[in-house]
Specification:
The structure is a single chain. This protein is α+β, with helices and mostly antiparallel strands and 503 residues long. Helix content is 51%, strand content 10%. It is built from 17 helices and twelve strands. It has helices at residues 2-16, 23-31, 33-49, 71-75, 78-92, 94-107, 121-134, 147-161, 269-289, 302-305, 336-351, 355-359, 367-408, 413-418, 433-445, 451-457, 462-502; strands at 113-117, 163-167, 181-184, 194-195, 202-204, 207-209, 215-221, 239-243, 247-251, 294-297, 324-327, 420-424. A five-stranded antiparallel beta sheet has the order 4-5-6-7-8, with no helix packed on it. It has a three-stranded antiparallel beta sheet with strand order 3-2-9. Helix 9 (269-289) packs antiparallel against helix 11 (336-351). The N and C termini lie far apart (132 Å). The model is unreliable at 1-9 and 15-19 (pLDDT under 50).
């Protein structure tokens, strides 16, 4: 026992006279050397940790709020307020609206196109009709948007509010077996917290979770709680339980275990507001600077002297020798460009887009710098497409499409179980099409990529491209066959003309 306590005692003695031990530590060490050693080690570890400046909050980092809660605990109070503030800024700020447009146009564009992958002849034969249905407003339960429009609306709601809901109407009551409806996150009945009625499931913000932590249902209002349409049955205050299989909850998880999303514009909201306030202040400064005023100092009566009340071009006015005229000094209006450019760049960086895409300002950009910026932004767009929108939004839509087709055609169950739907994002913006095309050709010839893979990377469907090439070749042959007699007759006429000239 003495041998085991010897190291602790020696350590305590070495620290006894040091500045790390206070009176309480010494008292504890005198009665329990082992407890004193643990306190000394903990204090030494704490001192080592404090060598990180980021671990201490001083006057320069006074705005930092170190919160230990999870992602939803941190955002549970601010999420709703941020969403309302962002909506107001987008309504009244052209830069904010432009930022949302850039994100939606690059992520969705003209739509992420579905493609049926199946070896069944009947399914492939019926697929063009399905595509025509998806390109019509019949796919929207509200009859407003096509599938591409629904994708854009859902992604826009995710960017603005942080999350969006896409609901499949009940096939037993819907007019069509496959329809979609996009809802804002306001439809979540966040009054429901705790345990679900008659179940062991837990509910958080209207989202019901099972024992394994997975979502099993959503409690959604029958009508938007802030709707201007008055319903006698109070639909905006009554929620219904909808199975999770009929709901797509689209949001960007920024932290592990995150259950709900936060607006993408939250980090740049202060810069957007500051930029708008500076615009108002700058406009007022411009108005004040445009004012040219003169102050006439005299003891005389203005009406008696005939001094005019306003200045006019070409005015010649005589004043007394004892009078004095002082002109106002309007404020300077310089420095606006630098201030606005700094905030616009901060906004672009915070959203993961380029300054040029946000503002359209290409004054200080050359081809190389613009292309490098597009490459960096393209990486963000691809990550959002392949890692968020396509697996979370598009793939569940594809599965529901196959299920609805199975409900309408029960006999094709075996073929549908082997079929799948792939999704192709819109073509990316290419700064140098000639160079990019040559690189793709070299990769295909070197065996580093397939032709179909390169076509899909450019945002096109390989099967459709092949079909169009075959059709174009058939059209070319048909035109060549039609032109052949005319060409032969023209050549014969030219030959006869040459023969007559030779004679």
């Amino acid at each position: 026992m003495q041998a085991q306590l010897a190291p602790a005692s020696s350590t305590i003695r070495s620290l006894w006279s040091g500045p790390d031990m206070n009176l309480l530590d010494r008292v504890i060490a005198s009665f329990s050397p082992r407890a004193g050693l643990r306190r000394a080690q903990a204090r030494a570890s704490l001192d080592a940790m404090m060598h990180y400046r980021a671990g201490s909050v001083n006057r320069r980092s006074g705005s930092v709020r170190a919160v230990s809660g999870d992602a939803d605990a941190v955002a549970t109070v601010a999420r709703r307020q941020i969403s309302l503030a962002v909506r107001d800024v987008i309504r009244n700020n052209a830069i904010a609206e432009r930022a949302v447009q850039v994100l939606v146009n690059n992520i969705v564009g003209t739509g992420i196109e579905p493609k049926l992958v199946s070896e069944d002849t009947d399914l492939n034969y019926a697929w063009p009709a399905v595509c025509r249905y998806l390109d019509s407003t019949d796919v929207d339960a509200d009859g407003i948007s096509t599938l591409a429009g629904i994708q854009r609306m859902a992604v826009r709601a995710m960017v603005t509010d942080g999350e969006a809901l896409v609901v499949f109407p009940d096939p037993l009551t819907a007019k069509s077996s496959f329809q979609l409806r996009v809802l804002e996150a306001d439809y979540l009945d966040d009054r429901l917290q705790g345990r679900a009625l008659g179940s062991k499931n837990s509910v958080y913000d209207g989202i019901e979770y099972g024992d394994d932590g997975r979502v099993v249902a959503y409690h959604l209002y029958d009508e938007h709680p802030g709707s201007v349409v008055w319903h006698p049955d109070w639909k905006g205050l009554v929620s219904s339980r909808i199975e999770a299989s009929r709901v797509i909850h689209l949001y960007r998880p920024d932290r592990p275990g995150q259950r709900r999303g936060v607006s993408w514009l939250a980090p740049v909201l202060d810069d957007l507001v500051a930029l708008a306030d500076n615009d108002e202040a700058q406009l007022m400064r411009q108005k004040i600077a445009a004012c040219f005023a003169a102050f006439w100092k005299t003891d005389k009566d203005a009406k008696a002297t005939g001094i005019p009340s306003k200045l006019a071009p070409g005015l010649i006015q005589q004043i007394g020798s004892e009078d004095e005229v002082v002109f106002a000094s309007p404020p300077d209006v310089t420095g606006y460009d630098d201030f606005a450019r700094i905030h616009l760049r901060r906004i672009a960086v915070g959203l993961g887009i380029t300054y040029e895409s946000l503002t359209g300002d290409l004054t200080s950009v050359n081809f190389s710098s613009g292309r490098l910026g597009r490459i960096d932004m393209g990486q963000n767009v691809e990550a959002w497409q392949w890692g968020l929108v396509m697996p979370v939004l598009c793939q569940p839509i594809g599965r529901e499409m196959l299920r609805s087709h199975l409900r309408d055609n029960p006999r094709s169950g075996a073929a549908l179980r082997q079929a799948r739907i792939d999704w192709t994002p819109p073509p990316p913006v290419i700064a140098d099409p000639k160079t990019e095309t040559q690189v793709s050709v070299m990769k295909i010839e070197a065996g580093l990529a397939s032709r179909h893979g390169e076509i899909r990377r450019l945002g096109y469907e390989p099967g459709q491209i092949d079909a169009e090439i075959v059709k174009d070749e058939e059209t070319r042959r048909s035109l060549a066959a039609l032109k052949a007699p005319a060409v032969a007759a023209s050549e014969e006429a030219d030959q006869q003309k040459r023969e007559r000239e030779n004679e």
